[in-house]
User: Fold these one by one.
Assistant:
Number 1:
Amino acid sequence: MRKGTITHKTVFTEGPDGRIVQLSIHAPDIARQGRPGQFVVVMANSRGERVPLTIVERQVGTGSFTCVLQEAGYSTRILGHMKPGDRVYAVVGPLGHPTDTSFRGRVACVGGGVGIAELFPVVRGLAESGNQVTAVLGARSAQFLILEDQIRAQARDVVITTDDGSAGIQGTVAVALRDLLRREQFDYAYTVGPLPMMRAVAELTREWEVPTMASFNTLMVDATGMCGSCRMTVGGEVKFACVDGPEFDAHAVDWQELRQRAHVYDSQQTHICKLPFADERTDTSE
Amino acid sequence: MKEPIHPSELDPKERITGFKEVISGYREDQAVEEARRCLQCKNPLCIQGCPVGIDIKKFIAHIQRGKFLRAYEIIKEKNRFPSICGRVCPAEYQCRRACVLSGKHAPYASARAIQIHFLERFAGDYGLRHAGGRASSRLPRDGRRVAIVGSGPAGVCCAGELARAGVTPVLYEALHLPGGVLRYGIPEFRLPRDVLRQEIDTILSAGGEVIPNVLVGRTCALDELREQYDAVFLGVGAGTPSFLGIPGEQLGNVYSANEYLTRVNLMQAHHFPEYHTPIHVPARAVVIGGGNTAMDAARVALRLQAAQGMKPEVTVVYRRTEEEMPCRRLELLHAQEEGVKFKFLTQPVEFQGDAQGRVRGLRAVECRLGEKDASGRRRPVPQPDRPLQIECDGAVIAIGLRPNQVLTRLTPQLKLNSRGEIEVDSQTMATSLAGVFAGGDIAGGEGTVIEAMGMAKKAARGILHFLSGKNSS
């Protein structure tokens, strides 16, 4: 089987704002080398963007890895429409530093939306090192809650929040986390998800003086340290999320700057998403 | 003395409507005529001016007599990529500056110097057209394999030299297409993609392959390559962009030149939305820097504006004056012809943004030239009492590059110098790790394509010597 072939596909959720899709991609080198917290870059076809996606699980035996994506923009929509047997034009990885999953004691892991999938390998890695993990998972509704069972199997406690109350507590992960921080002592926290959510988590854990790492999915092009598209300010220094990250001290990053840089291409994204969606799975230029 | 022969160029107005190559090559009669201007000096200084020592006198002599394929072969003995180097070499600082027809002690060649680069390009293109690179016949392989990390100028050159010696090179490239900076950095209007492809194909057809989408250090460790191959060459380049370190540099639509050029050259953002990578096309662009990369970024920005039907409005901001600009004179001239504006003696102080965090202006100060610095150029001295304000809604920073550190950081056994470059033996290009060699910008710091190739050739010799020692032991 050729590298980049899609071996499995699961549609987790159909929704008005795009589905959540899990893809397994054949890439023995990535399956062998990938560690929790690392990501890959995928190009759906030769005209595609270089899209960073977190490695969620690896199947070393069959030489594939899985990633989970939400069809939020044009490129993720093309990827979401690919079928088993299709092949992505390019996939490179693993990229970025692996998560430090060493023993710390009691750890709060907070994930939101599709970030829950990205949280899973970290929860598992931390649990395997003997940490007592409390996972806080936030989703829009029960329907958007993914990988709950897998995370339950690893974490000591799981707290669910949904915006509409269709599962767990109604509210945001920040509300649930505040309750937890009031009741329990944590040695460490880890968060991955939408920027506003991670920022809210960082503000809470700063207040409670819990060291916190956040994982950043900034805009990237080459994702190998060459372009600086993903640069962000951490502790007053410029860092590249692709090669210096993707995780940084959540209490040291400049959240305002991150928010602004994330929206630079909004108008182009709106434009391309308004065009009739062509089936771009097949690559005419090959 | 005959006047220099100039190849035809696209009209500047037509140029900026697309990415077509600006300079057409010489016709055969033009090449012969330009070659005939060469005095065939007894002591040809031009050869000393060439970092790879091409026998310039000899190849020009063959062009004089219409023996174009022979000229091609003579160049190829020293330089595997005449069609690339003939287009991108800063000849006016190298062979042409050394030409006896050039004025003495000038920082760069005079217009009277033989146009060696155009003749090289002519011979290179002639060779590709008429001999298919003449290396298409597969050479016998001797079973020895060398891993080449990075498929930029150093990597492909080292691969070419090894392939010629019967060793199989296997190139590992992190991006999805080979070529390194020739692919992502140099725009099509200076180096058409089919020329790049043909030159790389010539190398591969002699034996060898490119494996794209592998970031050595992450996808596999250097030690794994050392186990699997007889030797390893590292040509990972100077890929890390430098920033100015001034406030506002992280505002939206402030790009490194690497990012701006990669979005266009590699990802084809100028064909958005047919290609899916976006790019911001500013109504008023500012490019900071005075090298070739700054010229490339400025000229790309002009073309993007023209494609959107905007009035071209690109200003290059440089701390010194035109005289000290390190770019090729030809690129400067082309940029000026195309309508790029220049603001010399200007030092950026701060980028200013709007409420959305997008760049809206550049605050700067005027400089005057002071004493000469280590580079031999007069140092710019900022004058805080002479502030300047430049309106812009997009900025590109092209002030240089640092070593690519992905591999070196993940391979702590590899000895580096204080600048983060790989330490090498200057004769063999051997690194501190047995069987591992390095060349190009990762070993010598940011330099030109031909300088990288010079180092790569030296490394190839070092590798072949190392392999022969390995066999006999």
Number 2:
Amino acid sequence: MSKIKQRFVALPKPVKILLWVLLALFAYALPLLEPPIISTPGVDFGGVLFVVTMYCLVAIGLNIVVGYAGLLDLGYVGFYAIGAYTAAVLTSFHAHWPLLLAIPVAVVVTTISGVLLGAPTLRVRGDYLAIVTLGFGEIIRLVAVNSEWLNQRKGISDIARPPSIGGQEGLFEIPHLFWGDGTVLVDTKDTTQFLVFGVLDQIPYYWLGLTVVIVMLFADRLIKNSRVGRAWEATREDEDAAELMGVPTFKFKLLAFATGAFVGGLAGSLYASRQNFINPDSFLLLYSILFLAAVVVGGQGNRWGVLVGAILVAYLPQRFREFDDFRVLAFGLALVLLATLRPEGLFPPRRTVRAKHLEQELEELEEGAGGEESARV
Amino acid sequence: MLLEVEGLCVNYGHIEAIRDISFSVPEGTVTTLIGANGAGKTTTLKTISGLRKVRAGSVRFEGRDINDIPPYDRVKLGIGQSPEGRRCFVGMTVRENLEMGAFTRNDRKSAAYREDMERVLTLFPRLEERIDQISGTMSGGEQQMLAIGRALMARPRLLLLDEPSMGLAPKLIQQIFTIITEINQQGTTVLLVEQNAAQALKRSHDAHILETGEIIRSGTGADLAVDPAVKAAYLGGDV
């Protein structure tokens, strides 16, 4: 794995960019190609891919909170819910705004909710924060269950869709591939209209989701390499030492929380739009755990790692639908195995690997030398 | 006076860690607090840098009461600390640690910044050799150098050093103390906390002895080094 990475890094810049563009094009074309093995029999492939992009988005957001700033958030679905409900209320239940106007408002509302939750709770550390956020996720869901203003358990339907380009017919039609026995055909009857956000064809939603994910990846990279990213890293490693360097750690933790909420709210509002209907059951605690699983499985702190984690967590259960309830069992077993064999995740950031190895070595040394640190000088 | 501590009391819960201590650090000096484990040395430093809350009394920096100023703003005033146990950012490289030390500065591209980096790397040539190494993989002595260098990157007027000799080999301790003197001669005031009384007293202008949260003796470093009671208790001399 690291060899492939080394080779890639050694490539000249134009080649690297070209490879990235090809990868992106392949990702965009994936639902049209419907390659066998990868494609999901029995479930709409475009729909599965859309959900995958939502998990990717959520993983990027949660990774900022958990991976970069080191704040364990067990209630991330709360932000997802706030984004979704804000979009739902504004475009269907209490007003009829166009979606493109509702999404920015939903995102702002979610960000504010992140600050409101963070301001009192980020003063507690570690496990306590996990408990408080766990409660937050549940509170949001229970508010939705009980509030008439949010239509209680009945939920909200007719949430607005994104505007189609080129009217009902779209600008042009793109045929899908059809994989027969050993032959590949271009199926002119099975087409996707560019760009119509309708009921049946999920592919345009996937394209939208993928675009947002790519934009967020760029933003994530910018922020990680900035002064802010460094401050998060220092805070995560040693809060007191960070304060002594002049980092207002509380403000930076709050910023991480708000940024995470921003991304979560964006994902939630997109999800609500595609789904067209939401109710409190769309935002169970289980999703917080799955989101966190995506981040941890992939390797918290590494943006590509958490993307892989998100893809696995969202895609595999759909691919192996025929195994029914056994897939949950398999998922649980896989998590246990992973936690034992690769506790830092599939693709941990390099620093974590080194730091972990080091900690182990130091512990062994200290045990051996009876805490006599001078032995290592 | 650069730093004045007056009637300072600090608690951990109900336990009094520091009871009514007063001392001051004149500009340009090395001042030392010595004392045994649990005497309150680290607590005193943490209170000066703002990590601990004051129960009573005051800490004044350049005549200004800084009790209500949070630790991250005290760095901007000119108080830098190398904390107990070094506490480098172990996942970051040496260079990144030093950059972290300059977090409050916004002159990253200036000549002054490069000069400061240069100065730290001249003081600690070992750091230059290991500039791109992950700091956690370095020895205790190297990490101590990094912790001091990191604190210097903020250009502190007062440098707080918490047990820089802890856990180091005798030869290295000697080296660290020499560097502390050098830093002082370059114009930085140093407040040092130490258990290694012999070395510390030799190198400091003023010294105060802390015992169970109180200052029991003060004087110049040279005076205390020959004081019979101090010798008996801290320097392993005749009883």
Number 3:
Amino acid sequence: MSFLPNSDDDILAMCSEIGVSSIEDLFCDIPASIKNPTIQLPQALSEQEALTHILHIGNANEQLCSLVGAGIYNHYVPAVVDHLVSRSEFYTAYTPYQPEISQGTLAAIFEFQTFICRLTGMDIANASMYDGATALAEAVLMAIRSTGKNRVLCSATVHPHYRDVLSAYLWASDAQLAIVPYKQGLTDYEQLSHMIDDNVACVIVQSPNYFGAVEDVASIADSAHNHGALCIATFTEALSLALLKSPGSLGADITCGEGQSFGNYPACGGPLLGILACRSKFMRTIPGRLVGKTVDEEGRDAFVMTLQTREQHIRRQRATSNICTNEGLCALRATIYLSLVGNKLIELARINHALASYCCSRLVALGYERVFTVPFFNEFVIRVDNAKEIRNRLLDNGYALGISIDTYYPELNDCLLLGVTESVSNNDIDNLVELLQTI
Amino acid sequence: MSNIPENLKYTKTHEWIDVQDTYAGVCGITDHAQEMLTDIVFVELPEVGIEVKAGEQVAVVESVKAVSDVYAPVSGRITEVNKLLEDKPELLNSDPYGEGWIYKIDIKDKYELDELMDAAAYAEHVAQGE
Amino acid sequence: MQTIFLFHKKGKNKYSIPACDSIQGDEIPRSMLRDDLTLVDVSEVDVVRHYRKLSSLNFGVDNGMYPLGSCTMKYNPKINDVVAMLPQFAMQHPATIEETGQGALHMMYQLQQMLCQITGMHNFSLSPAAGAHGELTSVMIIKKYFETKGEKRNILLIPDSAHGTNPASVAMCGFEVKEIPSDSDGDVDLTKLEDALNEHVAAMMLTSPNTLGLFDRNILKIADMLHSKGALFYCDGANLNAVVGKVRPVDMGFDIMHVNLHKTFSTPHGGGGPGAGPIGVVEKLAPFLPVPIIEKADRYYLQYNRPLSIGRIHSFFGNFMVMLRAYTYIMMLGSDGLRNVAEHAVCNANYLRTKLCNHFQVPYNRICMHEFVINDEGLPNGITTNEVAKRLLDYGFHAPTVYFPLIVHGAMMIEPTETEHRDTLDAFADAMLTIKKEAAQNPALLKKAPVTTPVRKVDAVLAARKPVLKWDD
């Protein structure tokens, strides 16, 4: 298969116009000793063969009834989202450098920024980061820049992958990271008060946290502010923003997290949608693309990328970040999703919570222990003897019963972290419980 | 040809200082500088009260396409900043030597003024395209 | 310009959610709940019409030639997008991928191997989500490598023609950037490089071919110079499309590199992303790659046990769906097909350069690779690059990359890619010549361009002076 429109005759004619006898002459600057190596790749396939091949690979993946969250959530994606996002004027364009022929992308990003501000209670949202983990890392670098301090406190209830990514970024930029322990499923506030001092740039809290529990963001923000530090509130389940008090209203200075829940598939973990939002005083410190409203020459409303002097293509080593390519198409999916679902998002969030509560109570009735008895959104931790074995047996019966978390929390052995979304029905939960009784 | 008032002193990095008495000056960027930057959209002002050294960065001026640091022509303490620029950065384009002044400074060492260029020297500096 | 918020009217939203017959779960205290959220209340028809309308205001590769230099805006086969929507992959949860996603891991494993073949590198990591992310990850590896060796090296060399992401990535890792000038032919200035090289230099980052579209003729010499001082050589693979299948970065002396899957291996650019920026390394750097790496025993698994690794750099394993597209593309092209990509891309660029070089300044006018740079010097009536770019929009072409690289004043960087036919290149050249004629005869036409686009020239100054970054009712 090939996508080259020029024929051999075209190539001959073009070479003659250029003044060379063959294409090979155009590669004259490459040393002959290293030119045209042997590259061993599989035999080229036709489109039809390629599709058959990919389907064959894909069929080795299994579709289970999944009660797994932990950073990625299986929410229903309405048909409208796939349909509209497939318009190639959207997806075959690049970064809107030429606003006159990019108003579609620009307007959609502007809407995205608006939705994210409303959901997070923040003043400014950028046009997306790679994923929740890198959004958190960028938020922390932003806090370090703004405060001029370089010690960072992060709660142990923040998603372990996010903490790992943050740790790599902070190691690279020679900043210090300390982990605040948890107690009964929540950030240990007392420990935090011991650890915080005036050299701390920011305190990071995730709510709902990795265990699904709702944190007391307001108290943590107060504690941070009392020491001249910023409060960064992060999240992995963006749907919770529709139900729980917004990070902005609780005093967070920067909010970041994962937006996959809005119209994006689990997709084996990528592409995802990194969200980053902040108060207006950080307008010139926030990294990434921003779209602003303005007018065109005839006075009509128009949109344009703005405040670009923060970015790498202008400020180079003094830029706010190195980010260039973002997750534009995922942000577009989220925008269309949020437009369509609109205020029903609140009801959807309620139902997620209700289903998760139902699942939890059924399991507790079976004798499973609810490990943390604090309020949760749509994820919770249960303990049962031989948890791994039970989980494995269920995998063979078409259910993914959460995930083990003892790699990161050794004290939580025999525990499973479950996530329940609207993709699981009451019926599914009943069937699951029935199955659990038989094995 | 850009406007270069006779009564001011200039730096190679295109700042001006109006020495009001031996120990006080008003500073800004030159007409040439604003022309090079084109439409200025934002000015980051220094904090009042801070001490700066000659040649040190004191402010940042931003256009749509470029960011430029503004350096102190002399050492001293910042006594006042032009708050008007926060809302109207375009004053730097329309009136760089008047309403577009950036900050006032208490001059610490008046002999540093001798290091600066007069209008004629600065005009030559600009003509050489530096 | 309408936004979705203009369609808002209470009661329009009829979106329905599956019934839930257990309304328990009022166990979140009211004090934790919000009551201040309003998104929007519109109908499904509103949504479809609004976003269809917005799409019509956009210009993509499927609309016409998009010669945006250094971005490789080539035609992207539609089959790529079909496979990226398959539920077998789309519905796969990453947290259970070892148990339920063996197919996905198989593909990733194969892609790692293929990229090693294509570049000659020893190992690949697929984790970085974009080119700049790959750069950052690589600079972390460089830092870790020297830290492990106990060497204090704090400088990275970067040519003055480099993308802004290079110095920005370097700065994020606490290194100092030292800029190396290009010589009058557009190659790295070897004397200046010699002067800058010392035991504090950790590495040099070089885009190859460079951002002038030139293949550095001293590439082997540069690699030797760096290696003899114990420094590493980093390849920014943004322009790999020019040489894929023709030469392997490892043979050019590179130790570490990133590949922009969305450029060379054809993922649509999505209005800004997602892309993917896997990195490849020679054997001595392999221990430092981020976790996890996909490995194979009796089943595919995620290898985390890598004590020297820089750690994790993505929430999960990188942009899987972009990898799947790249894999499909490579499977369809094979090694001959990939070599043809480079050959045709280079032929197209040289053909267009030849057609334009008698009418426009080409500051480095020699045989180029997949792109070349012209500028606005000597255009009639002081017409500038920006005005030419805007007028091109009226003729149905996307503009080239403008005012980059920074070392060419008024640069226009043109990358036709291999998927344009000669006739399209002729049409583009004709448009450029017409614009030059207009510049001489009727410069006002260019000053007010574009005139055929959905909106006219947009006021970027107003947007920056009075930032409005969200919709307020």
Number 4:
Amino acid sequence: MLLHARGLTKRFPGTVALDNVEFGLAAGEVHALLGENGAGKSTLIKCLTGAYRRDGGEILLDGRAVDPQSTAHAQELGIGTVYQEVNLLPNLTVAENLTLGRQPRRLGLVSRRAMRSLAREMLDGYGLSIDVDRDLGAYSVAVQQIIAIARAVHLSGKVLILDEPTASLDAREVALLFDVVRGLRERGLGIVFVSHFLDQVFAISDRITVLRNGRHVATTEAASLDRVRLINLMLGRELAEETSHNHGRREAGAELLRAEGLGRRGRITPFDLTIRSGEVIGMAGLLGSGRTETAEVLFGATAPDSGTVRDAKGPLDLSTPARAIAAGFGFAPEDRKTDGIIGDLTVRENIALALQAHRGWARPIPRAEQRRMADEYIRRLDIRTPGAEKPVGLLSGGNQQKVILARWLAMNPRFLILDEPTRGIDVGAHAEVLRLINEMVSSGMSLLVISSELEELVAVSDRVIVVRDRRHVAELAGQAITTEAIVNAIAAPEAKQEARA
Amino acid sequence: MNGTGLLRRVAPQLLTLAAVLALVTVFFPSFLSVGLSGDRLVGSPIDVLKRGAPVALLAIGMTLVIATRGIDLSVGAIMAICGASAAFAVDQGWSLGVAVLLALGAGLLCGLWNGFLVAVLGIQPIVATLILMVAGRGIAQLITEGQILTFSDAGFAFLGSGAVLGLPVPAWAWILAGIVVGLVVRRTALGLLIESVGVNLRASRLAGVNSTVLLLTVYMISGLCAALAGLIVTGDIRGADANNAGLWLELDAILAVAIGGTSLLGGRFSILASLIGAMIIQSINTGILLAGFPPEFNLVIKAILVLLILMLQSPRLGDVAAGLLARRRRADETGAAPRPVQEAGR
């Protein structure tokens, strides 16, 4: 085994990002590392490259325990990394980029001639015929990517970690990159490949390791795995018995909203959606499949360029979040830190914000009233905070999520969109958020719940919409909602497109 | 914010102001004396209140702009435009009321322009306001036709050099403007929404905050404050000088906000602290002149004092100081009761 991580553990306040994870990489293999957002892929990589200090476990390189302190140190040990965003300098030449930090010197001065020949030597065997004296920025992202790889391989030479290297490449460039990766595999490097594109994973990988919620789920030969099983592993079905869904517990209410042909070019293909009062619509799909994009056009966060949404009274104006809120909508976004909380403001102010924005600046909510609201929701949602005047940025992820839920509950919306409401929060808060979802629905609110946790969707949803490739591809209802059915709909492009119950 | 909270917020600024005043008094003992000449108060403190008016007025608007994570470099140029507009109106024989309204309107229009560039077109504030900073003086020159436009309207001159109840009109102007704007932002929800947008624009928009209107509003308030400052400066010298009215004052206004402890990264703000910051700057200016240093030393001394003030307020230096104090306290653990630790700013 070239690189072996044993019992790797990493904790962040309020959450365990890596829990006793096992990861082995052999020389001469491409090993794909898969998992949804928050599964722990990037945390694992950052522990291996020294960007994070691990809290537990050990890392063996060539059988010897190593303790990378920084990415530079990891590079010296032999572990190099290339990220999705090429982190080289586009305004320097190719040769300068390749040799940066260790330019060959003569009499204390950089020798440009030696630098050029070293650069050519480094690029040898990558099948590139480029001028090392031109600026790096003059070349395509794929070529820059390969130059970054050449630099990483030259500096480290044993382990190469490719973090989403193909995210901004087209098909031809991907093929070019994969040729390079195969060449390096021949030379005996161990390569870790992180990607969301399953086709590419199957095309290049020898073995696949799947992480979920910071835990190691499986490591298998790529050849022995099919798409459905892989998606099962990624989205999770480790419970022995099928989670019972709640069909029949709720009466389907009257039609509340109807979206027709709603879409936005390049983000989500036009879709129809009917929402009844007091129901939970689940939304499943892989990362980047169009789940969040659906939520964003419904909420006016990105203005739709086709279609309408109407209620019993007529068409609704959902062109901006403020108008969607006026129409009785709410949206708790996936990325709490950048899209949800106002970190420096207090818990009280964060809870009051949406209501205050809706009332307008001239009608302030009296401070005592804000205080009463905050205290009520802190009690009702069991928000763990030293007080209502604490900056919300200091709370844990689960409690920040509850503050955002409180913000929307204070608005009493008729339709609330929750994008990954339980991501990155601990088990206790997780159960409470699910309890809240049930509470909100029984009070007549309609919910759209987007989640990567299939058990969660099965447990709370009356209907489940499945999205793939930015298109709504299937709708499941009633008894048909099982994790298996959802996985099949996500995986199979052709079968059961209209699997309605 | 309640009384004690407000006091705690501005305590570092008040202490700094006291320290500067004490320092100047060492060099110029009669600095703090105030007398009555006729029905007017006279003395250096009154002079500080009057001379500091333009920067204090600019600092009011600048505080709000900076709280939204913006900056307004054009306020000095707006002063020139508004002063020129008012002087032009008086020169044409129009009434003082029309002249003042014209100046205030011009200020609002300039603010609207800045706000449009920032909020609608999404141009970075420093670049967006740089445009008017450069173009503004040109516009002012066009209005005055390239000359210093002098006038003899007594009413207009009163705005710059008159006194009401013993206090100079410029001092009244910034004190009243500070109170009005302070009350408006804190008694309505404007303050909360401004801070929210300054901390996290995207999240605020998703919570339904109309950030476009909010940004337009703060840049217009800034333009309005600059218009008032322009009127005062023009009235004081009885003439509109397109080249020199308000020259570099935008930088002093930004400095006043920084000394006032409002982060240039946006978010929490305090208008009162910025106003005290403006008075600190003016005390230094007046103090250096009175202390009798050769004039060529003025700028260097001012820079050194400002550097000292900002270093004392630096949170990193505060941590170091707190650490040193704690170590000393541990060292004489057995000794006397712990000294009260002075909080070194934010």
